[in-house]
Amino acid sequence: MIKAEDIMETNVICVSPDTEIPRAVEILLNNHINGVPVVNDKQELVGILCQSDLIFQQKTMPIPPIFTILDSIIPLSSSKKLEDTLRKISAATVDQAMIKNPVAVSADTPLSEIASLMVEKHFHTIPVVDGKKLIGIIGKEDVLKTLIPNE
């Protein structure tokens, strides 16, 4: 049975939470990767930053739906959701744009579970951890390589 440790990349390109967004974009583009783990100074996984998180910044700020009655304005969406959207659109650092507490797998996670996560959750990149420490990364390409028979 193929496990995460058999297909993971151990030479992982990472960023820190205080990395500025333009630098993070350069890292993703220059390395042709969809996502990058975010680690603290102890190399512990604290988040993941994906291209879609950065593309989100190009989104326009939605006008929240409101309902008025008797000169009172009642918002129809949560202020927390509006606040989160505004924070992501205006992010200057990775910490402000990243997905915190991302889904990660351990080294002994079976390939079938990794593939399911990628398909069902639309993940392109999955970190591999030992406890909280980042030890590897798996991308869709790593999973596809398992379909090539070894000679």
Give the helix/strand class: alpha+beta
CATH top level class name? Alpha Beta
The residue-averaged pLDDT reads 84
The helix/strand series, from N terminus to C terminus, equals: HHEEHEEHHEHEEH
Shape: globular
The biggest sheet, with number of strands, parallel, antiparallel or mixed sense and barrel status, is:
3 strands, antiparallel
**What name is given to the CATH topology?**
CBS-domain
Our estimate of the beta-strand percent is 15-25%
CATH superfamily placement: CBS-domain
| Total DSSP helices | 7
* Unreliable stretches: none
Give the fraction of residues assigned to helices: 25-40%
| Architecture per CATH nomenclature, i.e. the level-2 architecture | Roll
Oligomer: single chain
Count of the separate structural domains: 1
DSSP strand tally: 7
Q: Determine Rg (CA atoms, Å).
A: 19 Å
Task: Give the strand order of the largest sheet, numbering strands 1, 2, ... along the chain.
Answer: 1-2-5
Distance between the termini: 18 Å
Secondary structure: elements and pairs:
Layout: H1 4-7, H2 21-30, E1 35-39, E2 45-50, H3 51-55, E3 66-69, E4 72-75, H4 79-89, H5 94-97, E5 99-100, H6 111-120, E6 125-130, E7 133-139, H7 140-144
Antiparallel strand pairs: 1-2, 2-5, 3-4, 6-7
